[in-house]
Amino acid sequence: MIFESHAHYDDEAFDTDRDELLPRLRQQGIGYVMNISSDISSVSACIALAEKYPFVYAAAGIHPDDTGELNEDNFEWLKKQCGHKKVLAVGEIGLFFAEPAAWLGADVVLVLSYFFVSRRVLGRDA
Ligand SMILES: [Zn+2]
What is the number of domains present in the chain? Predict the structure, then answer.
C-alpha cells in the first residue's frame, strides 16, 4: 500500500477532474492521502476533501510565502482546525530554503519552525 504523504488536491489545477481523480487513486494502490493546505483558504478546502473521502486526511498550516495573511484571529481559527478529527498534521509550515536558510542554516530554520508551530498553532510549549 502506498501512503501519499504530501498532496495538494485542493489546488485549482484539479478543479475539473478532482472527483474523478481521487476515487481512481484507490484503484491504483494509493491507500491514504495527506492533503496539505498552503494558505488560510486552503485549510477549509483540505478539510472538506478529508470529510468527503475517507482515505484522505488533512494537514492544516500556512506556507511561508503566505504568512503575511496571518494574524491573531486566524491563528486561533487555525488552532481550532487542528482539532478536527481528519487533521493529522500541521503543514505547510515550510522550511525556508531560500534566503533565510542561506544565512541561518536549514537545521536552525527547522527548530524555529517547530518552535513557532508548537507555540502558536498547537498551543504547547516547545
Ligand atoms: Zn506542498
Answer: 1
Residue 36 CA, ligand 1 centroid: distance in Å: 6
CATH number at residue 61: 3.20.20.140
Distances in whole angstroms, Cα of residue 110 to Cα of each of 5, 86, 94, 101: 19, 25, 9, 10
- Given the C-alpha cell 501512503, which residue does it identify? 3
Distance from C-alpha of 99 to C-alpha of 120, rounded to nearest angstrom: 23
Cα 27 to ligand 1 centre (Å): 24
Nearest to 108 by CA among 119, 97, 118: 97
pLDDT in tens, 62-76: 887 788 888 889 888
**Cα–Cα nearest to 113, from 14, 51, 76, 122:** 122
